[in-house]
Amino acid sequence: MSGRVAASRRAVLRGAALAPVAGLGVSACGGGGDGAEAPLAGPVELGPESEVAEGEAKLYREHNVVVSRGGDGTLTAYNTVCTHAGCAINKLEGTKLICPCHGSEFDATTGKVLREPAVAPLKSLTVEVKNGTLVAEPRD
Q1: pTM for the predicted model, two decimal places
Q2: Which of 19, 77, 105, 110 is 20 to 30 Å apart from 71, CA to CA?
Q3: Among candidates 83, 78, 85, 80, which has minimal Cα distance to 36?
């Protein structure tokens, strides 16, 4: 008899089932390669101005943009592509943005990093209201 230990059928099937999931985890940790989100290239209409209340923020996932409105009514916007590995930030808790890839956190009102591994702030965008609609675009 061989000195090798035979894997059970269950262990083989479990390994085969988990292999694709492990691949997703590896691709999520990529450092800005082909899977990285593209930054905003031009102006985009986000939605009605009324969607962003005073002192709050709204995440527009489909455009990778967050807009916040200060207590004085001033609007600010940031690109929500994480500055650490280029992942699209998909979670907003109050005014805190959370990146799903490595847990970086950003302030949606200032773009500043609240929690590493990201160290660079989010890229600031221009935001204005045109005919009642929020429009964001890259800064020159």
Answers
A1: 0.74
A2: 105
A3: 85
